[in-house]
Write a structure and sequence with these properties.
By secondary structure, this protein is of the alpha/beta class. Helices cover 32% and strands 17% of the residues. The protein is built from nine helices and eight strands. An eight-stranded mixed sheet has the order 3-2-1-4-5-8-6-7. It is globular and about 60 Å long. The structure holds S-adenosylmethionine.
């Protein structure tokens, strides 16, 4: 039985699609099935993102959390195992990866996991459930490529599209953790904003969230620990007055706060993606 599920999972995981071989396998799955995939934790920091998420917000009993663009379910499954009294819905366009999540949920009897295997674009956003909290991590910069090609034909329209999208998303979740890349469709030749323009990036993405009616309660970046591992930590601009959104802070204050993370020392672009925690007053 174990060998059978392991083989099936391996095939579904490595399906050679655009976002395959992306996430780590949740620890409880590896421990039980002896199945893992080699993903460099320094690259995207699945475990460090999860640790930070749980330090910032934990699923309450009876809460319903969503994971939009859940990939192979690292977040959905890890959370569902840890919080059996909360419900989790993974929304994932790739049928193999959606089935990967489903199979693990079935095998481990995680009855608090649901999977929606659909590509949800701006027009379908209102069809997803309303969540207490939503993970929306590293999907939006793929708009115009992976989905909504007809709505977003050129990079110059990204700001208008993203603001409209985030505004609609507000009706689907009370709280949000949001992250996105700086290259349109993941294409280095199509920057939405320069990879190393950290302050401008933070202000740009923060301004979309604000215009869409979200309040940014905290922002985090990864930093390297003494043993080389990653931990996400809050950006703490000096004298940061309460109730001021990031895009309103003076550039030099943000520059100084971000510089402490030494983001230029990281390989690649992923670790320069701020993690935004957001909420909004009830409509
Ligand atoms: C870059 S991966 C990010 C995975 C995960 N959220 C994370 O940060 O580790 C993007 C994922 O979103 C999925 N995806 C892309 N567009 C989608 C859409 N319109 N609806 C649902 N899933 C989508 C992809 O198949 C892929 O698994």
């Amino acid at each position: 039985m174990t060998d059978h599920i392991k083989t099936e999972l391996q095939t579904l995981y490595a399906d050679a699609s655009k976002h395959s071989t992306y996430q780590s396998i949740p620890e409880f799955v590896s421990a039980e099935l002896g199945y893992s995939e080699t993903i460099d934790e320094q690259w995207r920091g699945d475990k460090s993102r999860l640790s930070y998420l749980l330090a910032a917000r934990q699923p309450g009993d009876g809460e319903h959390w969503g994971d939009f663009g859940a990939n192979t379910g690292f977040f959905t499954l890890s959370l569902a195992k840890l919080y059996p009294r909360a419900r989790f819905t993974a929304i994932e366009a790739n049928p193999n990866h959606a089935l990967f999540i489903q199979r693990i949920a079935e095998y481990f009897n995680l009855t608090n996991v649901s999977v929606i295997n659909r590509a949800i674009g701006l027009r379908q956003l209102l069809e997803i459930p309303c969540f207490d909290f939503l993970l929306h991590l590293n999907v939006l910069h793929h708009a115009g490529h992976d989905f909504d090609r007809d709505l977003l034909e050129q990079r110059e329209d990204f700001t208008a599209y993203a603001t409209q999208y985030l505004d609609l998303l507000r009706s689907r979740a009370r709280g949000l953790v949001f992250q996105l890349g700086s290259n349109w469709g993941g294409d280095k030749t199509q920057p939405i904003i320069g990879v190393s323009e950290d302050t401008a990036k933070l202000r740009l993405f923060g301004s979309w969230l604000k215009r869409a009616g979200w309040f940014v309660t905290s922002v985090a970046y990864p930093s390297r620990n003494g043993d080389g591992s990653l931990s996400y930590r809050n950006l703490a601009p000096q004298g940061n007055p309460p109730n001021v959104q990031v895009d309103e802070l003076p550039e030099d204050v943000l520059d100084e706060a971000i510089s402490k993370f030494e983001l230029e020392r990281f390989r690649g672009e992923f670790n320069r993606r701020p993690l935004f925690f957001c909420s909004h007053p009830k409509r």
